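Page 37, continued from 36.
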């Protein structure tokens, strides 16, 4: 898994990511709205050092610096029990100085002798009373106790309230906005984390890049999603992007010298969830339309995909020829140069497999009558049936349906083919998306050409 894969998944699941972000925003706003409202009120104190009237300028500067140092030391005094115990006593509150300190805050601007005290309470009146009481008790502690001369009299430090506390506003609107923002961010994080998790867990093949980069396979072409899977798209919709994709794959096959030298080409998929018969029919029709003599053999008794698409169900074919020894020949189709041997009546097999030796001999004989013989085989991972038919061919074309098979399954299918002695000439990726993060430039071009 890499970042690009996670981003592709996030783009593919963008609706879920956005939905989770909106749900998070709604939950955050709801929690903030249900939280009891808190009101704040502030008051400001001014601290100064009373210098003599005839003091020199240097003394005045020293007095100002003294006041600056003092005001910062009083910052911690505001929330100390020495001040807050007096507040509790004056207001008759049933609490402790430690708990009350959580509702009181203090701030001082840089190089300033003005202190701002802010108090919070459940209603605006209590907030204002609390802030004013804290200020009054601070002045009392500082002026009358800490800075009072030991010999009595008035001390040199003066503290005055310059902005009395007034009824403050509720912090609920800001809290709701903050809750909405935090919820939105949290939902977005959850959505992206879900995309990363799904990317880690999702081993399916979604693009040709996965086959080329992760498995090192050669991809002949990518074919867009077929609108009518039960039809031969090249014949029914010859101008569709799917038909164009199959014609591009056919061109790659014809240019491959290993295909020309092979005595037969097995067309098969990794699992039963992929329809290799669809690819075999469309490739055969595309090659025949290019002026070649093509013979298509349906060697998948469990699927009948080729037989059904060419409407040859019930017509004697492969089973009758190999099991009963019937003289069955290829059936011509509406496409000049394309002949098909249907699978025949599979009930004649009685649960048995096709005779391997007879099938190999048949493929060799058919190769002498056509430019290209395509054999539609059972899936590689669907049992041992594929090896009896595919091993009679000189090459294999692996059909990979995007989103339906995993990379471990494709890897296992390739390993099984190599053990059989069958070298894949390449892969054909079907059902590729024409838009989105997993789309291929060539496939997008095919879709754009149709529009």
């Amino acid at each position: 898994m890499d970042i690009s894969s996670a981003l592709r998944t996030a783009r593919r699941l963008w609706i879920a990511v956005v939905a989770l972000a909106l749900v998070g925003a709604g939950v955050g706003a709801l929690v903030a709205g249900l939280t009891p409202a808190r009101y704040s009120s502030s008051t400001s104190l001014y601290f100064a050092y009373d210098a003599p009237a005839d003091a020199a300028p240097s003394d005045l500067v020293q007095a100002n610096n003294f006041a600056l140092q003092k005001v910062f030391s009083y910052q911690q005094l505001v929330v100390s029990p020495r001040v807050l115990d007096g507040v509790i006593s004056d207001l008759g509150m049933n609490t402790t100085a430690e708990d009350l300190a959580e509702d009181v805050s203090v701030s001082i601007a840089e190089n300033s002798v003005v202190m701002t005290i802010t108090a919070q309470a459940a209603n605006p009146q209590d907030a204002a009373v609390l802030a004013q009481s804290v200020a009054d008790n601070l002045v009392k502690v500082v002026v009358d106790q800490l800075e009072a001369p030991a010999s009595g009299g008035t001390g040199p430090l003066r503290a005055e309230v310059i902005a009395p506390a007034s009824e403050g506003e509720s912090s609920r609107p800001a809290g709701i906005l903050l809750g909405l923002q935090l919820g939105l961010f949290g939902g977005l994080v959850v959505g992206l984390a879900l995309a990363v998790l799904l990317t880690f867990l999702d081993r399916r093949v979604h693009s040709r890049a996965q086959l080329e980069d992760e498995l090192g396979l050669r991809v002949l072409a990518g074919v867009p999603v077929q609108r009518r899977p039960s039809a031969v798209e090249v014949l029914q919709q010859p101008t569709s992007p799917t038909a164009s994709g199959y014609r591009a794959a056919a061109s790659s096959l014809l240019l491959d010298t290993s295909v020309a030298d092979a005595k037969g080409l097995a067309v098969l998929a990794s699992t039963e969830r992929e329809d290799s018969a669809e690819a075999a029919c469309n490739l055969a029709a595309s090659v025949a339309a290019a002026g070649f003599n093509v013979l298509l053999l349906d060697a998948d008794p469990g699927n009948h995909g080729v037989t059904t698409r060419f409407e040859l169900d019930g017509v004697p074919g492969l089973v009758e020829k190999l099991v009963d020894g019937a003289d069955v020949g290829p059936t011509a189709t509406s496409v000049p140069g394309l002949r098909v041997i249907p699978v025949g009546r599979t009930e004649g097999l009685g649960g048995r497999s096709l005779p391997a030796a007879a099938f190999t001999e048949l493929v060799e004989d058919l190769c002498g009558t056509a430019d290209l013989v395509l054999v539609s085989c059972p899936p590689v991972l669907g049992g041992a049936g594929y090896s009896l038919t595919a091993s009679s061919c000189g090459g294999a074309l692996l059909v990979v349906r995007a989103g339906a098979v995993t990379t471990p399954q494709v890897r296992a299918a390739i390993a099984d083919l190599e053990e059989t002695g069958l070298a894949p000439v390449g892969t054909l990726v079907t059902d590729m998306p024409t838009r989105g993060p997993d789309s291929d430039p060539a496939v997008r071009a095919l879709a754009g050409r149709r529009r």
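The chain has three domains: 3-35+173-200, 39-168, 205-450. Flag for discussion at group meeting. The chain has a mean pLDDT of 82.
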